[in-house]
Structure prediction request, 124 residues.
Amino acid sequence: QVQVVESGGGLVQAGGSLRLSCTASGLNFAVYNVAWFRQAPGKEREAVSCITWSDSRSYYAEDVKGRFAISRDNAKKTLYLQMNSLKPEDTAMYYCALTGGYILCPSTTRVNYWGQGTQVTVSS
Prediction:
């Protein structure tokens, strides 16, 4: 049984930092491209950052470049998102996504496995 579990969300003041983690079990994590998506109330789910299974390529949404850093530890089957200089507009539910194949940042319909999400709230 595949399980994908996020953690690390919370309430933080603007300018603060959080580190999200996503741990997967029941599958070979190392062969999946992985990504962080987020969804704010009333908005569509969007890709924030993505990384290939081999760490060879990564992607960041324009509004998080220079503030967020994605990394993965295949031995621990864990994906991370270090979020610095957080802004109120970063407030959203953050989801971990695993996708097989060669697409770095898939559309939501192409994702194979989702986590349940972790809430990030940034106060001004």
Notes: Residues 91 and 121 are 5 Å apart (CA to CA). The chain has a mean pLDDT of 96. The first strand starts at residue 3 and ends at 7. The radius of gyration is 13 Å.
